[in-house]
Structure prediction request, 198 residues.
Amino acid sequence: MKRLLLFSISACAVLSLQAAEPAAGSDPKEVAIMKTSAGEMVVEFWPDVAPNTVANFKKLAREGFYDGTTFHRIIKGFMIQGGDPNTKDPAKSALYGTGNPGYTVRAEFNERKHVRGVLSMARSADPNSAGSQFFICHGPAPFLDGKYTGFGRLLKGDDVLDAIANTPVTASRSGEQSQPTRRVVVESIKIVPADQVK
Prediction:
């Protein structure tokens, strides 16, 4: 099974989510509170440049899709990657990096830079292959600019980003030094009005 830069699609067929519209009455000033086993992070969204990607992330979060997943790929100074439903089951470690929600979302490449704290979608070689996997930049990654869909940024929890990025890692199945030696769990992602966050 081929694993690419940030995300490999599983062998199962996927459907394309061509134009996921934000839910009626949804507030573009919502944020995500990401509770992890390493602490809490708060992320703001960029619906002005990636409306379908933001809508998809919020939908999955509200459904509890991310609850119990892990950050399965960690490269200090680069990024922390999560959102694979396979990571809920330690017995499926051979499949980590291949999971998705059963459909894909079209790319919304934009001019926002991949700097520290940026939330972006992981994908395979196909630009339109993103589904549920995301990453948060731990450092600048200009080589991703215009090639991956940045759709938000960290507002709070920079220390948590550091803590996760500093998780000890070992070689993954591909030989990359990125496989955490302990589980860093996404306990929940809650979508709330921005004014509820102090």
